[in-house]
Amino acid sequence: MIPFANDYYVQLVVILLIFAGAIGFPVLMELREYLSNKNPNFKFSLFTKITTATYFAVFVIGVIGIWALESGHYYVGLQWHEQLFNALFNSATARSGGLATMDVSELHMATLLFISFLMIIGASPSSVGGGIRTTTIAVMFLTIRSFAQGKEDVKVFGRQIHPEDKQKAFIVLSVFLVMLFAAVTLIVAFEGTERLSLMAIIFETASAFGTCGLSMGITADLSFASQGVLMVLMFIGRVGLIAFLFSIRRKEQKSYYKYPTERIIIG
What we know:
Elements: H1 8-22, H2 25-36, H3 46-70, H4 80-93, H5 109-121, H6 134-148, E1 155-156, E2 159-160, H7 163-191, H8 198-209, H9 224-239, H10 241-248
Antiparallel strand pairs: 1-2
Helix pairs in contact: 1-4, 3-4, 3-5, 3-6, 5-8, 6-7, 7-8, 7-9, 8-9, 9-10
């Protein structure tokens, strides 16, 4: 996409295609039903509301973050509209698009870390994208907000989040952090940091899990073992951590007794 860096029409079309693929099929189906006007009492589900709000909130944060971090670096000498479209496109493509209108390896290290965060969040559930998914980050944020406000229940859009969904969100994040640390450690052990920078390895790992496709150009230089680690991450990121965990989960066994509950100190 670098040859189209100044072709805003092509970039806009690609951004819309990325949105369509990453927003989630349930959202698209509900949107079609809403636009068809077949059901006058139709209401969007909580899933659609949370997914859409989170997706575009992260997109806007991505635009602002990339623009701010590169304003004194890559964007020096560019017109404001060139900077804007570059930030718009790269915020969208970091969410499982995988295309770039600039050489990613030339970005500031802070920007690379920020884009890695966007790739880790990824797309929405039931979409063509990967990552921990938008609903995971949304439920986590809402849970932390409710805790800070001294509220036990997590409420949003006039609905209450099910406790099991809160548990799943934190399980996804916890397992992902362990997997990311393990993957980066393995690749560093296989490759070393003399030839490849730690930032490049982290970026490549985040891109693999988010099934994004962005790269700093080190993929071909990785050993077969390191590429195997990335392939496993891509598979899990595409299938989804929850689906992957359920596939290896033992069948739930009914318990006929319970142990006494006791509180412990956390944090």
